[in-house]
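#structure-requests
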Amino acid sequence: MSRHGADFLNRGSSRTGVLIINADDWGLDRETTDRIFECAVRRRISSVSAMVFMEDSERAADIGREAGIDAGLHVNLSTPFSAKNCSARLMERQREIIGWIQRYHFSRALFHPGLRRQFEYVVIAQLEEFQRRYGVPATRIDGHHHMHLCPNVVLTGLLPAGVRVRRNFSFRPGEKSALNRLYRSIVDRILARRHVLTDFFFSLPPIQPEGRLQHIVSLARTGLVEVETHPAVMEEYKFLMGEAMISWTKNVNMALPKKAGDSLVGLA
């Protein structure tokens, strides 16, 4: 597990909050990697979620190891692998999963017993590739398009026990239907039996209204809060690199590198 998660959860009743800004899609392609790296060097993010078997995965891993970037695994079950070193067998197994996901609107919320081996093969291959590229097992895992939360992953225990896994989005009462909230809470309870979860999870957008981001900060004063961001999206990139980001996080305990260019580590 990345230290900024483990340290907080081991502090017991102190409840000193932490805000974690995590950039998704590290290694997806060159432009995405470069934008995320700019944010890392400027200390605008806490950590990254790394994709493997993608166009820029190998270069991103080299950069990440050299810079000491805190990287977790961004499990990809929904976007075709694009790396040259990806085997035909792995690509075919992933295509079968993608075909199922795209077939029906609610496919990602249904368990498909006929695809158990495909899910297992594709997830394990990514866990192994992450360890090969980064030199350590993934201790923090989330999913591209949040597919790590689908029943074929959660119910079969494909993710290693004890690692920190991204929970479902956190919503205020009334933001989603009661059935939607119930389903998400059940998935989170199942995850919590085997994994470490943050207290809350949000996306950076929508950036407006301003009150939404202030609500996130207020939660991070006493809880462990993760915010996902995609610097490849220009609106998010500009916010992260601008003065608004500094103003937003100035009164909260944000997980940051010790200084620009140093390793992205947890709180001391």
